[in-house]
Write a structure and sequence with these properties.
297 residues, alpha/beta, Rossmann fold, Elongation Factor Tu (Ef-tu), domain 3, six-stranded antiparallel β-barrel, five-stranded parallel beta sheet, 33% helix
């Protein structure tokens, strides 16, 4: 049997547990002198099985592809998840998707991987099915930081709670939102702290309201930033926004697609008595963000 090595999983976040699977896949692909395919699912299976109950994403497909390839995959393959796929037995999934469609000679998964109709297949089933056609399967333990299990669900909970520092430890990098810079109300410019109003993908998980130290990445460069997520209660704005003030930067970012990184939460969102009190607090936030990022970037 001659084919490719496939690392298989949802890979939302491409966290440290996922990286362990990818490292094992890279090793196996090099040993076999073949290519490594990172196979994920699109849309998220819960969007098909329980519409409206799917989780927000830690990595949209574009970000996921970039990170998987950065970690050693030759390409990412998105398996279209639909009702027909969900009804395939473990045997049908292994035969139709892994072997015939992808040409897998070896498959690497996390130790808790389940597959097939109603998730009835486990790793032992996968190994048996691959061996029946002359292939092989490998399972990778997913325990890591502080001996705690690393999962996308756990990281997502941390992000939406605003604990981006802990999330970064489990991701192996700061959490990032990608979005286009759109026109805002220009209020930041009026008070001396212009911001990039970033419109993230609606499917992406957004950190809790508050002020964060982080960065904004675009055009191959990275700039330290102080980012506010929220409704600007001092001005009674209705909708929540992601607004990043880039430190020591002047320029027009309208229309650019940027990555906003979240390194650490500085404080919760707060209502101020007026513009002067707000300006003073933002000034302190910016200096705190600068101090944090001086030791991060």
């Amino acid at each position: 049997m001659r084919g490719v090595v496939v690392v298989l999983g949802n890979f939302d976040g491409v966290h440290l547990g996922h990286r362990a699977v990818l490292r094992r896949g890279v090793e196996e692909a090099r040993r076999r002198e073949t290519r490594l395919i990172a196979a994920t699912f699109d849309p998220h299976p819960r969007a098909v099985l329980w519409p409206g109950k799917e989780p927000k994403l830690l990595t949209t497909m574009e970000l996921r592809r970039e990170e998987l390839e950065r970690q050693g995959a030759d390409e990412m393959r998105a398996i279209r998840f639909d009702v027909a796929l969900s009804r395939k037995s473990p045997e049908e999934f292994a035969r139709d998707v892994l072997i015939e469609e992808m040409g897998a000679e070896a498959v690497v998964v996390g130790e808790n991987f389940r597959f097939g109709h109603r998730a009835t297949g486990d790793f032992e089933d996968l190994r048996r099915l691959m061996r029946e056609v002359g292939g092989e399967a490998y399972a990778v333990p997913l325990r890591g930081v502080s001996e705690a299990e690393i999962t996308s669900t756990r990281i997502r909970d941390l992000v939406v709670a605003g604990d981006v520092g802990e999330a970064a430890l489990l991701l192996g990098r700061p959490y990032v939102l990608r979005g286009e810079v759109v026109e805002g109300d220009r209020r930041g410019r009026q008070i001396g702290f212009p911001t990039a109003n970033v419109l993230p993908d609606p499917a992406a998980a957004v950190p809790a309201r508050g002020v964060y130290a982080g960065f904004v990445r675009f055009d191959g460069g990275e700039h330290a930033a102080c980012t506010n997520v929220g409704v600007a209660p001092t001005f009674a704005r209705a909708e929540s926004r992601v607004e990043a003030h880039l430190l020591d930067f002047e320029g027009d970012l309208y229309g650019k697609v940027v990555d906003v990184g979240f390194a650490r939460r500085i404080r919760a969102e707060k209502r101020f008595s007026g513009i002067e009190e707000l300006r003073g607090q933002i000034s302190r936030d910016v200096e705190e963000a600068r101090g944090i990022m001086d030791h991060t970037i």
